[in-house]
């Protein structure tokens, strides 16, 4: 039994056993600096808009009726 296992708590301070593996956020600021959205996102920027139409490609927009919305 390793020293990091706390007998009264029944919990390992190193890995968190018996729970899911214990995380450590020592590089959280570094991750934030490098994460998605800190650069151009040339491709990813357009994905939400394309998702709304079901990723349609190569079709022509149907022309609206002439003068329908202009008369007021």
UniProtKB/TrEMBL annotation:
<dbReference type="InterPro" id="IPR011332">
    <property type="entry name" value="Ribosomal_zn-bd"/>
</dbReference>
<keyword id="KW-0863">Zinc-finger</keyword>
<protein>
    <recommendedName>
        <fullName>Ribosomal protein L37</fullName>
    </recommendedName>
</protein>
<keyword id="KW-0862">Zinc</keyword>
<keyword id="KW-0689">Ribosomal protein</keyword>
<dbReference type="GO" id="GO:0006412">
    <property type="term" value="P:translation"/>
</dbReference>
<dbReference type="InterPro" id="IPR011331">
    <property type="entry name" value="Ribosomal_eL37/eL43"/>
</dbReference>
<keyword id="KW-0699">rRNA-binding</keyword>
<dbReference type="GO" id="GO:0022625">
    <property type="term" value="C:cytosolic large ribosomal subunit"/>
</dbReference>
<dbReference type="GO" id="GO:0008270">
    <property type="term" value="F:zinc ion binding"/>
</dbReference>
<keyword id="KW-0687">Ribonucleoprotein</keyword>
<keyword id="KW-0479">Metal-binding</keyword>
<dbReference type="GO" id="GO:0003735">
    <property type="term" value="F:structural constituent of ribosome"/>
</dbReference>
<dbReference type="Pfam" id="PF01907">
    <property type="entry name" value="Ribosomal_L37e"/>
</dbReference>
<keyword id="KW-0694">RNA-binding</keyword>
<dbReference type="InterPro" id="IPR001569">
    <property type="entry name" value="Ribosomal_eL37"/>
</dbReference>
<dbReference type="GO" id="GO:0019843">
    <property type="term" value="F:rRNA binding"/>
</dbReference>
<comment type="similarity">
    <text>Belongs to the eukaryotic ribosomal protein eL37 family.</text>
</comment>
